[in-house]
Amino acid sequence: MRRKIKNKNEISPDFMYNSEKLEKFINYIMWSGKKETARKVMYRAFDIIKEKTGNPNPLEVFDLALRNAGPATEVRSKRIGGANYQVPREVRAERRLALAMRWIRDAARGGKARPMHQKLADEIIAASNNEGSAIKKKEDTHKMAEANKAFAHFAW
């Protein structure tokens, strides 16, 4: 018997760029329920992206960065006959977006000695150019999936 489908929370789009992805990313950045602070960080980062890229619409750069940072395959652990195998699997679209957002956020938080909006803008620009820590994480995930391709027949 199949599991009951969970009701997903509907996220209203942000008021400045009218984007649901951006509002979800603001929620990812948020710490301790301080959403307004997270919004300020994100919009300041978008101002920096406008300056550095010369693109009047930073949402395009942001969407490109999310597409570039999202992995196509990942490994999942599966126990078979007393041994654990790392089985490569395709990543669903929702999880791909969630991983990309998490990796960009964590890469921006990892930098030191600069305000968060500057680190975030730099990481988004780097990801849109297929560079940076989030892209490295994606490539490592793809390499691990490629290395364990021999166990693909265990996929469920």
Automatic annotation (TrEMBL):
GO molecular function, one term: tRNA binding
PANTHER family per UniProt: RIBOSOMAL PROTEIN S7 (PTHR11205)
InterPro entries, sorted: Ribosomal_uS7 (IPR000235), Ribosomal_uS7_bac/org-type (IPR005717), Ribosomal_uS7_dom (IPR023798), Ribosomal_uS7_dom_sf (IPR036823)
Stated family: Belongs to the universal ribosomal protein uS7 family.
Function: One of the primary rRNA binding proteins, it binds directly to 16S rRNA where it nucleates assembly of the head domain of the 30S subunit. Is located at the subunit interface close to the decoding center, probably blocks exit of the E-site tRNA.
Protein name: Small ribosomal subunit protein uS7
Annotated ranges, domain Small ribosomal subunit protein uS7: 1-149
NCBIfam families in the cross-refs: rpsG_bact
Oligomer and partners: Part of the 30S ribosomal subunit. Contacts proteins S9 and S11.
CDD domains the UniProt entry points to: uS7_Bacteria
Superkingdom of the source species: Bacteria
Gene Ontology biological process terms, A to Z: translation
The organism of origin for this protein: Candidatus Nomurabacteria bacterium RIFCSPHIGHO2_02_FULL_41_18
HAMAP family: Ribosomal_uS7_B
Keyword presence, rRNA-binding: yes
A Gene Ontology cellular-component term: small ribosomal subunit
Keywords: Ribonucleoprotein, Ribosomal protein, RNA-binding, rRNA-binding, tRNA-binding
